[in-house]
Amino acid sequence: MERLETLYEMAPVMLHSIDATGRLLTVNARWLETLGYAAPDVIGRYLGDFFTPASRTEFQAALPRFLQAGALTAMPFQMAAKDGRVLDVLLSSVGEFDPAGRFIRSLAAIEDITARRRAERVLAKSEELFRMAFEGANEGLCIVSLEGRLLLVNEALCRFFGCQADNLVGKTIQELAHQDDKGITPHHIVRALSGGQEHFRFEKRYRHASGRAVWARVSARLVRDAADAPLHFICHVLDVTETRHSTEQLSLHSKTLEALLRLGRMREDGLPELGAYAMSRAVVLTGSRSGIFAMYDADKDTIRLLAAQRQALSAFGLSPDARCFGLREVELFARAWQSQHPVLANTTRVDEGSRDDGRPGAPRGRYLIVPVADEAKSRLLVAVVDKDEPYDDADVHRLSLLGEGVLAHVKERSRERDLERARRQAEAASRAKSDFLANMSHEIRTPLSGIIGLTQMTLSQTPRPEVRENLEMILDSSRSLLGIVNDILDFSKIEAGKMEFSSVDFDLREALDRTMKPFQFSSRQKGLKLSVRIASDVPEVLNGDPDRIMQVVRNLVGNALKFTDQGEVAVEFRLLRPGDPLLVECSVRDTGIGIPEDRLPDLFQVFTQLEASRTKRFGGTGLGLAISRRLVEMMGGTIGVESRSNHGSTFSFTVSLRPAREEQRDEARVETAVLAGGFAGLRVLLAEDNQVNRLFLKHFLVEAGCEVRLAGSGGEALALLAQGPADLVLMDIQMPEMDGTEATRRIRDGEVGEAARRLPVVALTAYSMKGDRERFLSAGLDDYVSKPVDVDELFMVMRRVLDRPGVAEETNRPVRSSLPMDMAYYRDRGKTAFAREISRMFLDESPAVAANLDRAVREENWEAVGDAAHTLLGMAVPLRARGLTEDARRLQEAGLAGDATGCREACRRVRGELDRVQSAIRDLLRGNEGA
């Protein structure tokens, strides 16, 4: 008995006994320990006092049943501990009865299941959260059996497939997969079950309830039970259809751009090649299987195939060898063109492939036909067939772009033909204008030559003072008229890009003195002071084109005198930048009427005059300042003006010049009288059809000591030469019956004797357009003098021709236009050493300039290209390398304008001409060393 009590007391579970009223008779230690009571506080009390109110009620109801049945098994209650804790318990009890069947007492065991209940509640809550998360997830979730069958799906997955859960649960993944992607999921399932990767991801296509393909990114994990046996897969399904579509669209956009860029570069390809490439891209970019690219001829109402694939031809009921057919033969093509809208079908079957009347019908599958036209009415039809997915607006847009790319070539080639035709017409018009200007030059200059010559001749005879003043006014007016003619011709040359520049050593002070002499009379007439100043740091001798520089000075000084009634006109030259090249500035300041500030922008514009009314006080063509601006810019400088009304104006311009490389010969400074003194006894044949010109030219030639014979035509000149010899022929170019060039050619051919073939012949011409000098020299003429003839210039040219070494041999050969440089220019002036020196310097310095030019072109730095061209231009001018000079000037202009295409083309020409010049210099220097 004592042993049983010990076991009762030490039992690891809560034990107690109650009487028939439910009062506690005994409790063991575990009971007291669990609830935190002492035995005196418990024994004799009602067991229900230790239950929560709800459990006490349940206990009260269960106690009678227990007393009758004598047993209670695992009945749940909640007990309250002394410290207020609530315990979940299971109460099991058996009753002890006497022989009469009366209840004596119970023996009960209480199991504390608080921790278990807590875990169950946590698990239930967790399961509820899982259910809520599973159902409420925005992405598709599902549980898949080991065989790949859907066991549970959420609402998002139903939306992904476009159907209800009842229609999904029980289906296999294979049933839902796209035809081309069915093998992806089984592969991963097999691999996971075989012990491979149990967590896997992939992307694949599924079939939506509507029939379209949808893309999903699937993330799946194998779930195992407590025994590590596979149970099922939990899968996360993310709809990436739009993402895949966007990626595919970006890829298509990129491929479309690449196709258009390549199509744009196919400048040399014919229409068949363009059509074939465009058609292949149309098929690929739309995801089609076949296509047609055709051009519509509106005049013949026919379609000509540029490129076509057999499957597309067959789809539209056309013969595989079809090349051209009537628009009406294919109704869909006619419908597309008439409506100028795309024609398409996106069902798998539209209608029969052919009609009962034998005409082609519509394809059986999907197709798209896009008409493409431009404002020039060039027309294309692009058709594609058999796409897996429906055609959409993006496909229409891509086909339109490809068609427009081909039409751009058609339009460009049409424009090139038009431009070529316009260019030929413009060249013909330019030639006609040049011929007209040349003829007008001759017709105007010839009488002007007579007027100026006779006036000079009369002035040389020392007339009375009043007559002399009249003659000077006639001479001044004639020169003004000559200036107008020169302005018009110069503008024409500049406009046509035919203005030529020379590069010679010249004395700035001497050139300026000659330029200012004619203005002395005008300034004296108006009572103005005309002053000239050259800064002391300006070199005495410079290298450049003195004629063009002085032409600008004449324009500015003439304008200053015209618009100044009192005060002075001051001309000043100063050095802005020393070195090579150096920069010289010329300013012309006057105290005249000035220019309103709002009219300053109108200056330097062609045919613009600030006083444009019919009652204007000041004459002029409005070309002088415009020509001056262009001349200055072509010489690497700038021109500008500062002015205020009634306060005078200051015009300034700069030119880029190079230092002289050698001292001028003393002969260049010799006065005309000295030159003329060496002509005593010289036999001159003067061939001139204008009587006035013959008169004054004979006067000055006779005064210089020449023996002069006169001829009125080329035929007369040949006859006189046949009758007697001459030392020099002055040959007018335009004469009746036979012109001067034809007469010279016959002289060189020996028609008037072998001795006359080497006779020096100098042209007297009113022609002054580009190419005239080359034409005269190639005809055998030794030199030429422009009309109106300046006597000083005439005598200088005569001296140069007569003193030329080996003149007989030189004049018998035409000028070799193929040479890149004119070294004869320096040889004729006794400057051979100077020519060799500048040639050596060019050969040493030009490679570095060429390297800078190449680098600038590679880097597309067009400003640097212009700078390099400017440097090369300055180096080419002294060499008299006209081809290189012209090409370098064009390259400089293209560089300043930022014209990439023009720069590349001009650079190619410059490099070719530069190689020619360098090669010629090497030959020249080797020849000199050998000599």
SSE blueprint and pairings:
Blueprint: H1 2-10, E1 14-18, E2 24-27, H2 29-35, H3 53-69, E3 71-80, E4 86-97, E5 103-112, H4 114-136, E6 140-144, E7 150-153, H5 155-161, H6 165-168, H7 173-176, H8 184-193, E8 199-207, E9 213-224, E10 230-239, H9 241-265, H10 271-286, E11 290-297, E12 302-308, H11 310-315, E13 324-326, H12 331-339, E14 343-345, E15 367-373, E16 379-385, H13 393-459, H14 465-495, E17 504-507, H15 508-526, E18 529-534, E19 541-544, H16 546-562, E20 568-577, E21 582-590, H17 624-634, E22 639-643, E23 649-659, H18 672-676, E24 683-687, H19 691-703, E25 707-711, H20 714-723, E26 728-732, H21 740-748, E27 761-765, H22 772-778, E28 783-786, H23 791-802, H24 807-811, H25 824-828, H26 832-858, H27 862-879, H28 882-897, H29 900-930
Parallel strand pairs: 18-20, 24-25, 24-26, 26-27, 27-28
Antiparallel strand pairs: 1-2, 1-5, 3-4, 4-5, 6-7, 6-10, 8-9, 9-10, 11-12, 11-16, 12-13, 14-15, 15-16, 17-19, 19-23, 20-21, 21-23, 22-23
Helix pairs in contact: 9-10, 9-13, 10-13, 13-14, 13-19, 14-17, 15-16, 16-17, 20-21, 26-27, 26-29, 27-28, 28-29
